């Protein structure tokens, strides 16, 4: 039987999220996992990722916990210990379901000895999916649980209209030229930065003007304050001197 959160506890929890001004204490409850999630949790609290810099600390008793972290699929043997840990934690408390097994039961969801995910036993506030979740995902999930990110997740649905087509970036530049510029920029600056550099360069090409291509590129590069970007712009401009690539 799943437990529900009373309305007054929900109000207290909301107050905790908005007014917390101290470290958050986490108690881990292993409901029947393979210990893969535990390894990642321990990695998240090592000096490399240093979850304590956000005020996230692990405690040895649920009576001291603000956050209950449930891992593994809930087995029949661990159902009552999980409920006792939930009851022992003082209100208001935040429940985090960790890993694929904690979120849904994982690959063990249909075993005779498994109840399912954490939400089949206690009310869950935050889900951290993954098999197992990475330490950065773990810290991000804690931040969401504590409201540190102050984010608002809103679903957006787009219904494509009849005859509607996706817009093409920089349509005035020939397709083969766009592809060439993006490849060259990513080759010299990496995938993410290369895309940004290519977008700026293509935007320059779309600006109407009577100057020759080489002079336009040199003027564009001269206006760049970062000499590394200026050099990339000049090199891309040199590759466009091939007759087949002139925009």
From TrEMBL:
NADH:ubiquinone oxidoreductase-like 20kDa subunit domain: residues covered: 34-142
GO MF terms, alphabetically ordered: 4 iron, 4 sulfur cluster binding; metal ion binding
Cofactor(s) listed in the protein's UniProt record: [4Fe-4S] cluster
Keywords from the named record: 4Fe-4S, Cell membrane, Iron, Iron-sulfur, Membrane, Metal-binding
Keyword Acyltransferase recorded: no
InterPro entries on file: Complex_I_20kDa-like, NADH_UbQ_OxRdtase-like_20kDa
Pfam families the record matches: Oxidored_q6
Gene3D superfamilies, sorted: 3.40.50.12280
Protein family per UniProt: Belongs to the complex I 20 kDa subunit family.
Record's protein name: NADH:ubiquinone oxidoreductase-like 20kDa subunit domain-containing protein
Species annotation: Rhodopseudomonas rhenobacensis
